[in-house]
């Protein structure tokens, strides 16, 4: 049985991030989530963080470290936004803001977390990407580029810090059973599911299980990997 760890989940106040945070809590770890409002669902502790602002990221980590009484052992960079639109109509701001949150935001958090991990010569970094980052998606050039960029980030971190007991991996979820997918017309849901070999959407808990494995001692020799949780949709793209 491994010792409880200090786990920070960005964007952990809802959806996949919340499921990930709750899975670590259930395993006995000490968990802090970040949200822009600083609010969290019942049973979770939150700190305020805007991942597009370095000072805000530093302050959030400082607040989390006070709660933990020590450094962050596991970082799950999950915070993300979408601003979908067709390529020819996408504004610079729609492109830049998605890259700044999803990719640069993850970088800011990884950079800040690495300080304590290097001192401890141990750490787990898990970046939440998407099947769209590998497979592409019409109207999602900004989102897809941001999520693909996380793969290069994780692999560069692995090459820099892999010798210090730190791993950096990517989890790429496919379609997840959420309020958003549930609200889609039945015909649309059927069309999506027809392209997924598993024939169904994932549960958020299934993504959380993959994240927890990558954060575990058992995954100490896995780094720079992309783990799809997509029912076979991406087939390793």
Automatic annotation (TrEMBL):
Looking up SMART domains in the UniProt record yields: PKS_KR
Name this polypeptide is given: 3-oxoacyl-ACP reductase
Which PANTHER family would you find in this protein's record? 3-OXOACYL-(ACYL-CARRIER-PROTEIN) REDUCTASE, 3-OXOACYL-[ACYL-CARRIER-PROTEIN] REDUCTASE FABG
Cross-referenced NCBIfam families = PRK12826.1-2
**Organism lineage string:** Bacteria, Bacillati, Actinomycetota, Actinomycetes, Micrococcales
Q: Which Pfam families match?
A: adh_short_C2
| Residue span, Ketoreductase domain | 5-179
- Report the sequence similarity comment from the record: Belongs to the short-chain dehydrogenases/reductases (SDR) family.
Task: Show the GO MF annotations.
Answer: oxidoreductase activity
Q: Is Oxidoreductase among this UniProt entry's keywords?
A: yes
Q: Where are the transmembrane segments?
A: none
């Amino acid at each position: 049985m491994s010792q409880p760890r200090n786990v920070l989940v960005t964007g952990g106040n809802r959806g996949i991030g919340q499921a990930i945070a709750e899975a670590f809590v259930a395993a006995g770890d000490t968990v802090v989530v970040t949200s822009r409002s600083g609010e969290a669902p019942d049973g979770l502790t939150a700190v305020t963080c805007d991942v597009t602002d370095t000072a805000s990221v530093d302050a959030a980590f400082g607040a989390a470290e006070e709660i933990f009484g020590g450094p962050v052992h596991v970082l799950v960079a999950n915070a993300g936004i979408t601003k979908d639109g067709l390529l020819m109509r996408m504004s610079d701001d729609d492109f830049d803001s998605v890259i700044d949150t999803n990719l640069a935001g993850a970088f800011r958090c990884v950079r800040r977390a690495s300080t304590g991990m290097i001192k401890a010569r141990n750490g787990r970094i898990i970046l939440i990407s998407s099947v769209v980052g590998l497979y592409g998606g019409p109207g999602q050039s900004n989102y897809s580029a941001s999520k693909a960029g996380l793969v290069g980030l994780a692999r560069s971190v692995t090459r820099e810090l892999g010798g210090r007991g730190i791993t950096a991996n990517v989890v790429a979820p496919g379609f997840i059973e959420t309020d958003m997918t549930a609200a889609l017309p039945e015909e649309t849901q059927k069309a999506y599911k027809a392209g997924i070999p598993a024939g169904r959407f994932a549960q958020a808990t299934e993504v959380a299980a993959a994240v927890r494995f990558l954060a575990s001692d058992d995954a100490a020799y896995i780094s720079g990997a992309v783990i799809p949780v997509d029912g076979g949709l991406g087939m390793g793209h």
